[in-house]
Amino acid sequence: MAASKEEKIREMIEKMDKELDEWMESRPKRKPDKDAWTEDNWEEEMKKHPAFCSEAPEDVDNAEKYPAWAALQAIKYDENDTPEEKAIQYKDEGNHYFKLKLYKKATIAYTIGLQQKCEKPEVNAILLTNRAAAHFRLGNNRTALGDVTKAKELKPDHVKALNRGALCCMELKLFADAVSWCDELLRLTPEDKTIQQLRAKADKLKRSQEKDRRKAQAQEKKQKAQHNRLLQAIKSRGIRLQMPDSPDSSDEDDVAESMDRLQLASLEASFPSTGAKVCLDENDCLVWPVMFMYPEYMETDFIQEFHEESRLADHLDAMFGSEQAPWDVEGKYKPDNIEVYFEETSKSKLHKVTPEMMLKDILSDPRYRVLAGTPSFILLPKACRFTEEYLRKATAAAVS
């Protein structure tokens, strides 16, 4: 069967394609231009052209590097344009970036638009409101609120500004202010269901916030009363307080200030697992956290609740009367073989304490300062070489 006309044409085209490929292969090879587009980079290179790209280069102001961009900018922003025309052009540019979710670039465009010194308040109000929207998307809620506040001053009936002001206040938990913004908005759009719902939510949160504030104020008042009772109890016993790296607070007028610093530096900072701090019990007796230090072995014991009418001897009996401390390898630390000292911080001088004394009597000693709200004592074994050497060094340091 004779070939049809279409088959003959197809055969001819295939033959011509084959001959063209053979001719191309026979041609001498040339090195491509270093700036030529390739199969791998042509799409990337094409996107660099301002006609096809989705955003401007970071250094777009470099006219020598981006002459095409410079030409387009010159066309877009004519020097003969009025400030209003330039402001609107930058507003449109900002809107373009905003649609692409390039919010930082949008804020820059709106800012440049505001710098054109346009004399029409409505144009500047729009620029401010749009910039607020971009800042809002970036999470800069307080900056956004500042912009819409200025926009409202320029154009009090600008619905978008009022709407965004209410939303900013909600994000900032300024619920009372959010209600005010919604009320202004509802005077313009009384039938807006969305704003009605937003106002209802803001009002509910405002009431809850006010309730929490009243509760916090009542709690603060209660804590202040307890604080004052504690201060009076400490002052009445002649106990002196001192914070680390601070002057002595022996004067009566300074006790309250010292105690404030004590509360601020709360003992949780030193003993995070206990949270212990001085307090009054039901009989208005002071209960202190107390530290025992054993410099021979660099060990410490922390007693969370040491009643002021308890004796040091009572705690020594409980701690060393029946069991040997794991670090006491020589068994020297026994209730009747322990000497107790406190340090007079102003003179770096050690003073020996009679263990049979009650804690409140020791703390009332004019030479004693309660450091950081935690009375502390140094415990040393009697008739021991370490004790003799330790006391000798302490005496020498106090004299010097």
From TrEMBL:
Q: Name one GO molecular function term.
A: Hsp90 protein binding
InterPro entries recorded for this chain?
Answer: Csn1/TTC4_wheel, TPR-like_helical_dom_sf, TPR_rpt
Does Repeat show up as a keyword for this record?
Answer: yes
Give an example GO cellular component term for this record: nucleus
- Stretches for region Disordered: 202-227
**Residue ranges crossing the lipid bilayer per the database entry:** none
- What SMART domains does its record include? TPR (SM00028)
Lineage, top-rank taxon, reads: Eukaryota
Question: Which UniProt keyword terms apply here?
Answer: Repeat, TPR repeat
- GO biological process annotations for this chain's record? protein folding
Here the segments flagged for biased composition (Basic and acidic residues) are 202-223
Pinpoint the Cns1/TTC4 wheel domain residues. Answer: 281-385
Q: Does the keyword Cell wall biogenesis/degradation apply?
A: no
User: Which CDD domains does the UniProt record give?
Assistant: CTWD_Cns1
Q: What Pfam families does the record point to? A: Wheel
- What family name appears in the similarity comment? Belongs to the TTC4 family.
Record's protein name:
Tetratricopeptide repeat protein 4-like
User: What organism does the record attribute this protein to?
Assistant: Branchiostoma floridae
- What is the taxonomic lineage of the source species? Eukaryota, Metazoa, Chordata, Cephalochordata, Leptocardii
What gene makes this protein? LOC118432030
